[in-house]
Amino acid sequence: MHSFLELSKLFEEKFNVRHFPGHTETLYDPAQYILGIGGKRIRPVCVLLANELFDEITADAYHAATAIELFHNFSLIHDDIMDKAPVRRGMQTVHMKYGESTALLAGDVMFVKAYENLNKIQPFNLQKVLQLFNITAAQVCEGQQLDMDFEKRDTVSFEEYVKMITLKTSVLVAASLQLGAILGGSGEGNQKHLYEFGKNLGIAFQVQDDYLDAFGDPDKFGKQIGGDILANKKTFLLIHALEVATAEDKAALLQLMIDNPADKVEKVLAIFKKCKVDEWAKQLQENYFQTALQHLEDTAVLSARKKPLMELAQYLMVRES
């Protein structure tokens, strides 16, 4: 069995090549550019971790992991355009460096390249893999659309936000694990448990992200604290505060979202703390985390073989950046 860090290194060695033709550089260089600025590669490594849970890591697992990482970066290119984001991982986003039209095409061709890698998988697994991949790809797009829809609304319910996060973020982690399990010869019961493990871990990760944006250490978080507050993003924290605040605090919170004063972050955080949103968020994260761990526990594999997935879960939950 390999650890998450060992598999990250193995995957990076195989993935760190040019994935696109040498011609039509104005199209393919921008696509290669985003792959070269790094990332944790959590999703593709989840494919390998789940595959090794049941069997030796196969060539098909690397094909699926590569497809997952290409799809993920396709979604990042398009998300950055929609969010008008200037920076990704400390570097210029593709659309800022090469223009929006080229960025759209670069994302499109990356999606095509993902399918090229899936097509390398042995035929007896290919139908199951394609079905799961197609469902997941559509769900990620649905989640992004819901996220944009929520920007136009004054309020979003807790249930609506969980659904959006599940689709936009969690299902790709969940599907990555299930893909690895399929390619490792797992039964459907274990596949479902690993899917639910990934889905709940992904939601817990987002709760942690929302929490760190408001209450994290700026030196460790690596981003401006209160960025979500300044952007009026409907996070777990804001949604809960609006649900439990007194009428006076709720009115003040809504007014702060309209007025955007210079001390907005400080005032919003004061209301959050008054509502004990920080304590609630930590408990919410723990609830999803424990649900994830229960599904991992219920996966019918020797406990020792699950250790790398347990280490990954703990790594994601104790992060400060």
Report a brief summary of the structure.
The protein is an all-alpha fold and 321 residues long. It is 76% helix and 1% strand.
Structure description:
With 321 residues, the protein is mainly α. It folds into 2 domains: 1-157, Orthogonal Bundle (Farnesyl Diphosphate Synthase); 187-321, Farnesyl Diphosphate Synthase. It has 16 helices and 2 strands. A two-stranded antiparallel ribbon has the order 1-2. Helix 4 packs parallel to helix 7 and helix 12 crosses helix 13. The two termini are 27 Å apart. The model has no long low-confidence stretch (mean pLDDT 93).
Report, as a whole number of angstroms, the end-to-end distance.
27 Å
Q: Could you tell me the strand content as a percent range? A: under 5%
CATH topology (level 3) name of the largest domain: Farnesyl Diphosphate Synthase
State the shape: globular
CATH homologous group name of the largest domain: Farnesyl Diphosphate Synthase
The total tally of domains equals 2
H and E order: HHHHEEHHHHHHHHHHHH
Side by side, the strands of the main sheet go 1-2
**How many DSSP helices?**
16
Can you tell me the residue ranges where pLDDT is under 50 for at least 5 consecutive residues? none
Radius of gyration: 20 Å
**Which structural category do the helix and sheet elements fall into?**
mainly alpha
Biggest sheet layout: 2 strands, antiparallel
How helical, in percent, are the residues?
Answer: over 70%
Class of the largest domain in CATH?
Answer: Mainly Alpha
Please state the second-level CATH architecture of the largest domain: Orthogonal Bundle
What is the averaged pLDDT score? 93
Tell me the number of strands.
2
